[in-house]
From TrEMBL, chain A:
Family membership: Belongs to the ABC transporter superfamily.
MF-aspect GO terms: ATP binding; ATP hydrolysis activity
Entry superkingdom: Bacteria
Signal peptide: none
PANTHER family linked: CARBOHYDRATE TRANSPORT ATP-BINDING PROTEIN MG119-RELATED, D-ALLOSE IMPORT ATP-BINDING PROTEIN ALSA-RELATED
CDD domains per record: ABC_Carb_Monos_I (cd03216), ABC_Carb_Monos_II (cd03215)
Pfam family of the protein (one): ABC_tran
Keywords noted in UniProt: ATP-binding, Cell membrane, Membrane, Nucleotide-binding, Plasmid, Repeat, Sugar transport, Translocase, Transport
The protein, known as: Ribose/galactose/methyl galactoside import ATP-binding protein
Database matches in PROSITE patterns: ABC_TRANSPORTER_1 (PS00211), ABC_TRANSPORTER_2 (PS50893)
SUPFAM superfamilies in alphabetical order: P-loop containing nucleoside triphosphate hydrolases (SSF52540)
From TrEMBL, chain B:
Keyword flag Cell membrane: yes
Subcellular location, record wording: Cell membrane
Membrane topology: Multi-pass membrane protein
Signal sequence bounds: none
GO-annotated cellular components: plasma membrane
GO molecular function ontology, one term from the record: transmembrane transporter activity
The protein's name in its UniProt record: Monosaccharide ABC transporter membrane protein (CUT2 family)
Sorted UniProt keywords: Cell membrane, Membrane, Plasmid, Transmembrane, Transmembrane helix
Source organism, top-level taxon: Bacteria
Positions of transmembrane segments: 12-33, 39-60, 67-86, 92-111, 123-144, 164-183, 214-234, 246-264, 271-290, 296-313
Amino acid sequence: MSKLKLSGVSKAYGATLALRRGDLEVMAGEVHVLMGSNGSGKSTLCKIIAGSVRPDDGRILIDDTPVTITGPRSARAQGIGIFYQELSLAAHRTVEENVCLAALPAKARLFVDRATLKERAARYITLFEGVSGEGFSADALVGNLRPDQRQLVEIMKALASEAPLIIFDEPTSALDRAQVERFFEILRDLKRRGRGIIFISHRMDEIKAIGDRVTIIRDGETITTLNLNETDAGTVIRLMVGGAGDMPASQSSAPAAVDAKDGAALTVRNLSGSGFRSVSFEVARGEILGFGGLHGQGQSALLRAIFGAGSIGSGEILIGSDRFDAASPRDAIRRGCAYVSGDRGRDGVISGRPIIENVTPIHYLRDRLMIARPSKLRDKVAPALESMHTKFASLFHPINSLSGGNQQKVIIARWLIDRPDVLLLDDPTKGIDLSAKADLFALIRQLAADGLGIVLYSSEDAELLGNANRILVFNGGSVSRELTGPERTRYNLYQAAYEAA
Amino acid sequence: MSRVTSFLRQPIVVALALIVLLLYLGALLSPGFASGAQILRLLIVASLLGIVAAGQNVVILGGREGIDLSVGGVVSLSAIIAGNVMNGADIGILPAIAACLVAGAFFGLLNGLGITLLRIPPLVMTLGMLGVLQGLLVVIRMGIPSGQAAPALSRFVTQPLFLSVPGIIWLWVAIGILMAFMLNRTVFGHRIYAIGSNEHAAYMAGVPVRLMRIALFMISGMFAAVAGLCLLGYSGSSFANVGEQYTLTSIIAVVFGGTSLAGGKGGYTGTMAGAFLLVILQGILTTVNIDESGRQMVFGATLLLLMMFYGRGRAMRA
């Protein structure tokens, strides 16, 4: 029996099609896995089912009846529960209150019925008895729990909805093996009771262990649905990658070989910190080293930590042959390290200020300037902006008057007046248009040719394959594989990202 | 056309227009209100407020809910310190200036440290500091007025110095030029705007955010101290809580001048116009026999009105 059926669902944000065509059928009593790379449209699909995004087109059927989901409340009323990947817990409330938060039992329609609440919450809390770890109890404050315990509360909350169809979006990312095992037992029990489960995970072993069928999404389109026991990991990955996945990165766009005799620009030895552990690598002068892997596997945390904006537990960093452990970005900048974030709204743009003031901060610091003379600064700022074909009417217009791509060019231009030795790029092309991307990579290659050591983390595989000499694939905070030369294929990249750990 | 309307919408243009309007209104209510001598007298009072507002201005520009509620207390404390150090003798002026600046910088430093290191919100930190200062004033003076202004200081504040304009107005003009230069042409000024606009981005671009914030509160304390010193010269002797009113009025002057309470937007020229405007308003209220408590109510209401007026733009952006 079909629990949920989506046909021809689509969603566009402005000119970008987030979901071109989504077809999905979830049966009662099955765990249905959704697989797709970053930005393939799977989270848009989930949001449509959960009611937080309204589709532009398509039909949704629940229990073979057409329905319209108008919002999250309506989705819940139709019997859809969701586990949120971004934690949605109230930190100052207890575990039991959080578990029952969606539907607090009430007395006289006004007061919370504590006895019923305790009893109801206890049902879900005991499910994880023995694996929930030290300090976990019904009346513990959620804010005092470890990340894995908070994730358990989130799971309990989703289970407490008792919805006939539950979406689990990466529910196991923080859990240990015993907790995952217990969670899967619970899922199997739900299956026996005829519930439908949509399961998103990037761990191939988990998918094989719990999934019945898998639907693969690529470029906003659901490609196919397969029975998991009739297929293997290679096939699934090949489908996610698409046709040309086995071809090595095209030679025309591959960077020139690096002359290693110039020595290393950046050396990282056994570096551990929050979000990453025992990472070691070396970037030669003139090299572009790629960081690959799924989102949030420690790439950003590592780059920020090198730049002095994160925490480092142990290990060492060298720039050139000098020990480098920046206490702050200020310190890092002074010593020749540059960092460009993809989240320019938070980390880059000084909103409301003129373009020129968005370019000059690094120059001020490195040249120890006190006085800002516009005429002198203009001579330095204008060439930096022009080297990337930045379009602007006047240097004194606010940066907000520019498009996203041009804003990012301005942010990058600030590093070009006084050249750094090492450039860290943290998904720098997020949300910018294609021509801006092309300009940006042309510049990055030029900078490498000039002898900078460059680390490029990108969530877009094509950018990595087309620009990086070597690619380190991250998984769970450490490097799981290094791809060089002809190994640099989309297939290998996916395989390393999904299969390992 | 749109250029004309956007010019007319600029806070400083609005403030200047209101200044002319209020002067005209004052002249109607009491002939001679807009005479040269009277305007000079208003400008002296406005410079006292304007100097306090300069410090308030940089703190607010620095963002993160930056505000300095302790300025009133620092003004009073500075007037008392100055009065006792110089005690009516010109020879004591330089030591008095030094003592006042040190005191202002010290309390600013305490504010800055509390806000950056202990992460106390500026509103709470400076309000607490105001309470401490008020208590301190009572302890120091034990209720007895003490200290006399040096004759030279009084002359500087009240008598014509150059081109028949008193020295304090020249001082204010100099501060205005200095502030404009600092905000527009120095790295320090650009960094104030940077931390006020996007603190995290400024941090990632190497701006020493904490040091900057401490410096801003120290500047605010020092400007308040200078104003306290001049206030002593204006009134001759230091008396109970002379500076009290400056907390509220300095904030109004800054907001009047078009500086956003959210930080990162505005400048000092507008604040100068705002300070003058407030003083004229105060003069008119006095002319029509509204007492101090009534004036405070009008000022409070003015601030709330301004927030409604200027707050709209921000709400639309969010």
